[in-house]
Amino acid sequence: MSLTTFSPALLLLFVWALLWIMMDIHFRDLTKVQRWLVPLAILALAVFNHVLRERMGSEYISHAMWLTMHLPFFLLFLYITKCSVIKMAFMILSAFTFTAPTIVASNVIMRHFGSSRWMLLVSNLISYALILLLVQFVFRRGFNYLIKYGDDRLFLQFSVVPFLYYLYVFSALGVDFSSLIDSGGWLVRYFPSLEVFVFYFLLLSVYRNLSEKHEIEAEQAALTQRLASSEERIAMLNESEVQTAVYQHDMRHHLNAIDSFLAAGKPQQAEEYIRKVRSDIERITPKRYCDNELVNLLCSSFAGKAQRMGVRLEVDAKLPRELSVSDTELCAVLSNALENALRAVADRSETDRWVTLYCGVRLGKLLIEVQNPCAEGLVLRGGLPVSDRAGHGYGCRSIQTIAERRGGLCEFRARGGIFSMQLVLPVKAAANTKN
Length: 435
Known about the structure:
- It is a single chain.
- By secondary structure, the chain is of the alpha+beta class.
- The chain is built from 13 helices and 7 strands.
- The strands form 2 sheets. The chain has a 5-stranded mixed β-sheet, covered by helices on one side. Strands 4-5 form a two-stranded antiparallel sheet.
């Protein structure tokens, strides 16, 4: 078996583009140092491998590829993405697997047309383009889900198949398949590659479906929370309406009492009585946080829940009546964020049982921030907090998915004993807001 292609430099550039798509890396997300270091490193590797092949031959390059290409790419992309070692090893093995069609095409060209460099170049360019299109439109989303939501143990299990294929390819480098020219020979040489490709189709499809199922479950939970909030709000309004009617009926008595205090020359008692009546009226009057009714419903519901849990919930909401963000998405974000925050502080000391919520629109962006105290050792993996509680952990993923779907940004941070969720979404909102 041969790993010969037109040029190791061209193959190296292809693998770089392949990993760039698989791992959903964007040049704008790189630091200033990375923006000039990465292209220089890729160029240096390409030149080095090209010169090495010209001087040592293609057979030497095939045996040393793990050292001259795979290991440098592993270290380079590990530095760029900051992902775990196990995930990066899986991605390198996957990229190697996706070079198989080009190697097969090159071997076929060499068998039928000899060592025609122009034929090798054309076949390589066509196969590279087709594979990149396949990864972009078929595999990219599955790899993105896998990298973001899969843990290291899962990746370790998934790496078994591409690792065995990797061993198969390098162990077969010295095997002469030239006598295997019939259909059985082709089956022996290339069937393992076909099997691995089928594995990736099934793996990414199943994992994507599971992730979408989790998102649907999270949105259903948010809708359930919204319904519960609405029911609680209606109950509060009904109770408020009854109490308001009672106060309206008793208003004549209150005025008579105040008049009696004033007539008796007791203005202080009259002022105290007025403050008591005002306090009672404010207590039964539903609190409005902003002009947006959905946010009022959710904040009222969670304020009641926080009060029952002994948690201080501070809300600073400045949202207009209408937002271009759907009610379902807004409900999912606020419900998941507040639910997670209340749960996180429920067992903490009284001084640490607090949660703050800010939401407003600035410069065409919806800004939402939820903060609460957290343990110093809180672990973030892949930008998401790690939860070891059964049935939990999907709320933050749901928020992150909504941000990505709407072209926004979402960040979870744990610094100085404070956990914060910050979300920015592009919106079109009415100009009038209630502060």
